[in-house]
Amino acid sequence: MGKNSKNVKSNKKRVFVAFDGSNFYHLLSSIQIRNTLEYDYMGIAKWLSGEHYLVKANYYVGVIRYDSRNPAKSKKMISAQQKIFSSLRKQKINLIKGYILSYILKSGNSFHEKGVDVKIAVDMLVGAYEDKFDVLILISYDTDLLPAIEKVIDLGKEVEYVGLRRRPSYGLINKVSKSRLLTNNDIEKFTKI
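The chain above was modelled as a monomer; its predicted structure follows.
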């Protein structure tokens, strides 16, 4: 396939999709997608990559720890999370684990992750410095990532923020190369039935 094939290939950019797992889970929940085991994470990563070449899709999440003060609830939560991890692995999504310090940092009914943002930032920066991608697609609402985003852009990479149209992060929109705000329908079409 001569010249034309080569030109098409050279126009394709290498894409790294980074899911902030907690943010994405809450995004799915906010539009009533409850069965996250049946969600097509790789499908949406490929769709977001468009005509470009998806080189990596990472899902960053805090790991739920067993808590002896509430064994039944923690066992149930751990089991549910392990099922999601299994689904992600089957879809060839890289699982990057942080930590959840359950009752130490528990407020109300929510748990706070530790180490997830740092892992996202490190992977963004290392990938940019080592020229592992051309475009980073970031699915997160976390403005703590802004310094890393700015450096990745300084290194000549594109950073695309992906959020929900009805709940955008203007802090991220104002700093990234471009942004894409999804509708409920965009997200729902990757629900496996």
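The mean pLDDT is 86.
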